[in-house]
Design a protein that fits this description.
The protein is of the alpha+beta class. The chain has 14 helices and ten strands. Strands 1, 2, 3, 4, 5, 6, 7, 8, 9 and 10 form a ten-stranded mixed sheet that branches. Helix 10 links the parallel strand 5 and strand 6 (about 235-240). It is globular, with a radius of gyration of 24 Å.
């Protein structure tokens, strides 16, 4: 018997035909995984003990069981494996080395493409906190993840600087994502080195915004070119800017907001770029402090009859939902682990995309449960849903592989 892998029975049934991954298969069907694997050129040319489809699910399982070893993750995914229909009952758990080699063969592209193919906004027309003036509320923001301190990771991802001019103890990857405010579903993302700025990574993600969205962003992202690029998609924008930004006043509106023009002030050919008309909202939050924080928002919704200043100010408060979403992913899903587990850049990317897939799967199940029970998915416990998902993995059979 080989040191690792499963004994191949005469019936030629494969691990990918029988392994149980429970609820994950509802969100990421096997046929979709097969498609992204084929498109990435990772389909096996021969039968392997750890097929590519199994390893795609394994990459999500690593996120679901972030505190467990490779072997324990694999055992959890294969719990309940059926040994009927010709399968030998004699087997050995794949070794850590065997699993590592199978992860390397898969690479990160199929897992990235799986997220891109499947992840979509989840809110229905009646999902609380999801809509304003017929527009879907979504937020853009970025976060960083600590990585194992290897030379390869440090060279590829870089290290952030500390406040005293020193380098961080760990390399970091930056993730910029778009989240649906009412469901916390992350449905678009860009992953890269921490040495790539959040604004630069946002340039890519805003090109995929769509009409019918109202996109919220904090003041660190605003720039004329980025605003122009996002607005050109047809999505509406509601972004905070610094109070030092001085748009040219055009007209004061009945709700106290005002129309203004913003213009480019730097960059190639900035003098030739036409100004854009925006609507400006200024307000403060009375939170009991002696110097309450001042807010200035810009929006592409120019007509106050569609959304007045108060409605927009309340809508902007939903931007914090993406902060809560990152907390779910980094603190609860990942657990207290300080760094990810992968030692090389390609596997780091695979692991991060696996985390994004895992979070999306859990949030999908939460939205389904909320809809069935008439609840607000925002008010349901992510931690409880995470526990349920872990417990339920062995309750659904893995779909058969393609012929």
């Amino acid at each position: 018997m080989p040191r690792s892998g499963w004994v191949k029975p005469e019936s030629d049934r494969r691990l990918s035909d029988l392994v149980s991954v429970g609820l994950l298969t509802r969100v990421f069907p096997a046929e979709v995984i097969d498609e992204v694997i084929a498109e990435a050129g990772r389909t096996e040319q021969r039968h392997r003990a750890l097929p590519a489809r199994v390893m795609a699910y394994f990459s999500i399982g690593m996120a679901l069981y972030a505190q467990e070893s490779y072997e324990d993750v694999f055992a959890a995914l294969t719990d309940g494996l059926s040994w009927t229909s010709g399968w030998s009952q004699s087997w050995t758990m794949p070794s850590k080395s065997g699993i590592f080699q199978a992860r390397s063969r898969l690479g990160h592209e199929p897992v990235r493409d799986l997220f891109t193919r499947v992840a979509r906004p989840l809110a229905g027309a009646d999902t609380p906190g999801s809509w304003l003036a017929g527009r879907r509320l979504v937020a853009i923001d970025g976060t960083c993840l600590d990585l194992p301190d290897t030379d390869a990771n440090a060279e590829f991802f870089g290290r952030p600087g500390s406040g005293r001019g020193e380098k961080s103890a760990y390399p970091q990857s930056r993730v910029v994502a778009v989240a649906e405010c009412g469901t916390h579903a992350l449905f678009d993302a860009v992953v890269g080195p921490c040495t790539t700025s959040e604004v630069e990574m946002t340039r890519e993600v805003v090109t995929r915004l769509q009409p019918g969205m109202l996109v919220l962003a904090d003041r660190g992202l605003y720039g004329f070119d980025l605003w122009s690029r996002a607005a050109a998609t047809g999505a509406d924008l509601l972004w905070r800017v610094t109070t030092t930004l001085r748009p040219r006043h055009v007209q004061t509106l009945p709700d106290g907001s005002w129309l203004a023009e913003i213009a480019a002030t730097s960059g190639p050919g900035w003098r030739t770029k036409k100004p854009l008309t925006v609507r400006v909202l200024d307000y403060t939050l009375d939170d009991g402090r002696d110097n309450p924080e001042q807010y200035r928002l810009l929006t592409t919704i120019l007509d106050p009859e569609q959304a007045d200043a108060v409605d927009l100010a309340f809508a902007y408060a939903q931007r914090w939902e993406i902060e809560n979403t990152f907390d779910e992913l980094k603190t609860h899903q990942r657990g207290p682990r300080a760094v990810l587990r992968s030692q090389s850049p390609d596997l780091v990317l695979q692991e991060i995309w696996g985390h994004l897939c895992c979070h999306y799967a859990i949030r999908t199940l939460m939205v389904d449960a909320a809809r069935a029970g008439g609840h607000d998915p925002d008010r349901m416990s992510f931690v409880a849903a995470l526990r349920v998902t872990r417990r339920s993995l062995s309750h659904s059979a893995f779909p058969p592989s393609r012929p």
